[in-house]
């Protein structure tokens, strides 16, 4: 297995595809059981569709981290179609993802990957929840 150091992860914080696979499997198992996130996933992804969804998610993260080009989807469009998606659910997703990163990865890699996830979530939320004319 090739050891890859994605941009933002230095020599002290390696991340390889095997570690990423473990992280994603563990995280999505937790997310599906989570009282807040579980119902969102259950409503959006049929049980039989989970293997395909996990392959798509793995392709997304490999593309983001390792520049593989595996992912050809539209994350904004996918999230736009989710009923009831709120900033609070993004916060819960990020908290659970960070927890899982810390369980699976070395501290430096966990922190760097969590930071990357936060930037992606911020970008998605900017597009999903922007309401012109609304004052925060």
Automatic annotation (TrEMBL):
UniProt superkingdom: Bacteria
Gene3D superfamilies xrefs: Globins
InterPro entries associated with the record: Globin-like_sf, Globin/Proto
GO terms of molecular function: heme binding; oxygen binding
Stated name of the protein: Group III truncated hemoglobin
């Amino acid at each position: 297995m090739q050891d890859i150091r994605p941009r933002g992860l230095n020599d002290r914080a390696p991340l390889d595809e095997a570690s990423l696979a473990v992280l994603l499997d563990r995280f999505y198992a937790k997310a599906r059981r989570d009282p807040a996130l579980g119902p969102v996933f259950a409503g959006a992804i049929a049980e039989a569709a989970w293997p395909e969804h996990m392959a798509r998610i793995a392709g997304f993260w490999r593309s983001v981290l390792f520049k593989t080009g595996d992912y050809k989807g539209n994350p904004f469009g996918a999230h736009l179609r989710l009923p009831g998606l709120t900033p609070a659910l993004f916060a819960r997703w990020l908290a659970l993802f960070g927890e899982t990163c810390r369980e699976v990865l070395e501290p430096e890699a966990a922190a760097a990957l969590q930071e990357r996830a936060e930037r992606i979530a911020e970008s998605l939320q900017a597009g999903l929840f922007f309401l012109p004319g609304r004052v925060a």
